[in-house]
Amino acid sequence: xxxxxxxxxxxxxxxxxxxxxxxxxxxxxxxxxEKETEKFYKTFCKxxxxxxxxxEQRFFTDGTxxxxxxxxxxxxxxVVWGIYxxxxxxxxxxxxxxxxxxxxKAVKFLEQYIEDLIEEKNQMRITYDLWEMHExxxxxxxxxxxxxxxxxxKIYETLAEELGENRLKQETVVKQKEILGKELVKIxxxxxxxxxxxxxxxxxxNEKDRKLDISTLGLVTPFRMFSPNxxxxxxxxxxxxxxxxxxxxGYLRFEDDHYTGSRPWVIATLWMALYYIEVKDYxxxxxxxxxxxxxxxxxxxxxxxxxxxxxxxxxxxxxxLVTCNVCNSIK
Length: 331
Known about the structure:
This protein is mostly helical and about 325 residues long. About 50% of the residues lie in helices and about 5% in strands. The strands form four sheets. It has a two-stranded antiparallel ribbon. Helix 2 runs parallel beside helix 4 (about 75-90) and helix 7 runs antiparallel to helix 9 (about 165-195).
């Protein structure tokens, strides 16, 4: 009874973060579960999008707004990026066309964010990072917006024939593609000029504290603002290995990461594996995978963190599958 009460107080943790769900739908696509992915976008995302085009931080799985303590711009950017990523696997133009209006509303919101960022006009540009711990102008968030704008350009290109039937719409699309192209240049210049630390020889997570953070890898994977072998990226990887790699081979999320203790995180270690796969360094990628597999539970569950001394799973164990009541999909 006490356990049930504790579960109820925390909402039974039946929450859906749009960003997290996008990564899960990528996995569903790899498993050929495209229908489940499509339901997530066409039902859950459409029902939860705000009138101004954004998605809030998190929702209950029935689509109602869950308690939020901040605002995360990457939640919105991730949906646009995810929609085009889903199309690249299914080649379903109808899905893309059905999602067009939703994406356009989201991109309009993101364009306003970038305008406020460049002109330093208001606090909308200050958001929480993906760890929900640090407010500022996050390099991960900017990477996700960059990817969303590129995805929107590709959506327009893919639907060019269909949109060409409407002359007014076609003219609007041409103009919007030009705007997006300019925005992409602005974002990349901002990241290079404001978020690359020449003294540290690495990218930093935000302008405020300028710390190393594993989420900087978002510049390469999955958002591809930079190629994995560019000098600024390889410099950053070197600094990450010097400062975030622990003696057991696991990685911290960021410098001075003391959440429940200074322990390596499974997600950080696997993110490094993804980078090493990008540069075809399969030996180091395997070392990262081996660390994660070796420290999983006896039932094969992956924990949030790993106890370096005991080399065992630590903290939250088993990120569960939860049925989504709105779209009968999966989180």
